[in-house]
Amino acid sequence: MSLNKELENVTAKLWIKNVSKSFNSAQGHVQALSDINLRVDEGEFVCLVGPSGCGKSTLLNLIAGLDRPDSGEILVDNDVVKGPGRDRMVMFQEHALFPWLNVIDNVMFGLKLKPNLNDHERREVAKFYLHLVGLDNFAKSAIHELSGGMRQRVALARSLAPNPRILLMDETFGALDALTREQLYGEIQQIWQKRKKTIVFVTHNIREAVCLGDRVILFTPHPGHIAQIFDIGLPRLRDINDPALTSYAQQITSALKHHIGEVAE
Amino acid sequence: MKKDKVLRVLFSVSVFAVLLLLWEFCVGYLGLLKHSLPAPSSVAAYLWNSTLDLTLPGAILVTMKRLIVGYFIGIFAGIPLGMFCARFNIFNDTLGVLALGLQALPSVCWVPLAIIWFGQSESAMLFVVVMGTIWSMILATIHGVKTIPPIYLRAASTMGSKGLHTWIHVILPASFPSVLSGMKQGWAFAWRSLMAAEIYVTILTGFGLGQLLHYGRELLDMNQVIGVMFTVILIGLLVDKALFSPLEARLRKKWGIEGD
Asked: What are phi and psi of A102, to 5 degrees?
């Protein structure tokens, strides 16, 4: 396989059909997700927001194939998700990088599991993505030597390296300080535009969702379901401090209050 | 920082030098306790002479050979067995429980059984060393595997790692800090039990440090007793400083684990 083909932009549409999921926890039977239906277009950036317990992370795990739905199915293009796969990579809240490997070996971990590539090509691919996230000079660094923001950038490079069609981000910036986060909002939008991935981004930060998403999917709990969907018609690249974001964020916040109030009554 | 360290080493060395001089002065010059404790100079003379006539280096060689062979068998059997225990309940509920029980048994207690089973032979020595090492290794590996952050496994599985690949490339390296502490503990147990076994049992195929110590007592040769004890301490220190400390330091540096 040639390097250019490996680095080609690929994307996929995602179709979530009638998906439900429940858990048995200490509090008894919990309906985490109830009859979720959602279509995500190729190359679309959607954000799932909602209070904790609304099932947004559960849905992400289902898309990732780390867990199975009780009923319904998830389709990537036309294939049913049956387990984890390299076409869907996940970025977690914690960076989840392996401390026994240096930066470039972490990025190459997933690539080594990809057949049809030789080691030289794998290294070139890893370098390409390290360059994309601006960490060319840190290839040989140990993970703990990096700042929190740099670690998440390595994690991003590691997720992008196997060239997935869908990128799943689970509160990826949640553990970072505000300044680092603002910087990464810009970078993730640029990288998304360059690599054309379909991105599903889970967060409880509404402003963050408005800043990043083409659409914001509002979830509410008990049971977890989609309460409302918002199209964000703002031009890219968006800045988190742009006042234009505020009216969207307010609209979503009041919708959230409204929906939660309904449940309480 | 560097200068500080030099000063600390100098201080440490001079304290021991003063103690040795004091000991030499009291025993060698004033003649205090001279029937129960030899002067450092005569112990040094023993060490020098027995090195020249090769009895001491020979004994060290015999002991280290027994130790290293048994220790590596213990490690290389203990790690996979520990992994089996961590992975399969059927192993954990049997071998895991056994390991927990037998690790509580001081490894010296294996010596009588070893002699009954293997006679006064190298196999008896090997058995004692392996028993000293393997249970700590199994337990440390189980602990290491069970305390791996689950997120490593989730991340690995999304990248397409599964089965044996996950065990070799994720679980084994991720549990290394615990495995290393098991290796250190296993070494300490193996070293102590081998010394006890050598003092206890005479084996004609090799004359180890423990036997040298034993015959020092039989011949009432205090120089030999103290000299061999000194050698045993020195080897223990050397292994710690030359093997385990650098390994731990590397691990701390690579993983960024807090510590001195």
From this structure: -80, -175
In Å, how far are A57, A97, B156, B166 from B152, measured between CA atoms? 17, 7, 6, 10
For chain B, the structural domain boundaries read 1-35, 38-254
Phi/psi for B58 (5° steps) reads -60, -45
Question: How far is it, in rounded angstroms, from Cα B207 to Cα B68?
Answer: 16
CA dist., res. B79 & res. B140, Å (int):
8
CA distance B33 to B65: 37
Q: Which CATH architecture has domain B38-254?
A: Orthogonal Bundle (1.10)
Contact between residue B228 and residue B213 where contact means Cβ atoms under 8 Å apart: yes
Q: State whether A142 and B256 contact (CB < 8 Å).
A: yes
Query: Nearest-CA residue of chain A relative to B153?
Result: A96
| A230-263 pLDDT tens trace | 888 888 888 888 888 888 889 888 888 888 876 5
Q: Which of B155, B160, B174 sits opposite A113 (nearest CB)?
A: B160
Taking CA atoms, what residue in B is nearest to A84? B158
pLDDT tens, residue by residue, A31-73? 888 888 889 988 899 999 988 878 888 899 999 998 899 988 9
Distance in angstroms between the alpha carbons of the first and the last residue of chain A: 60
B161: nearest CA in chain A?
A113
Residue B220: helix, strand or coil by DSSP?
A: coil
B156: left (phi over 0), alpha (psi -120 to 50) or beta: alpha
| B249 CA: distance to closest CA in chain A (Å) | 14
Rounded Cα distance between B116 and B97, Å, is 25
Task: Name all domains of chain A by residue range, CATH numbers in brackets.
Answer: 3-264 (3.40.50.300)
Q: Which value does ipTM take for this structure?
A: 0.85
**Strand order across the A79-80 sheet:** A28-40, A14-25, A71-76, A79-80
DSSP state of B94: I
B-side interface with A, Cβ within 8 Å?
149, 151-152, 154-161, 165, 169-170, 173-174, 176, 253-256
Q: How far apart are the CA of A64 and the nearest CA of chain B, in angstroms?
A: 7
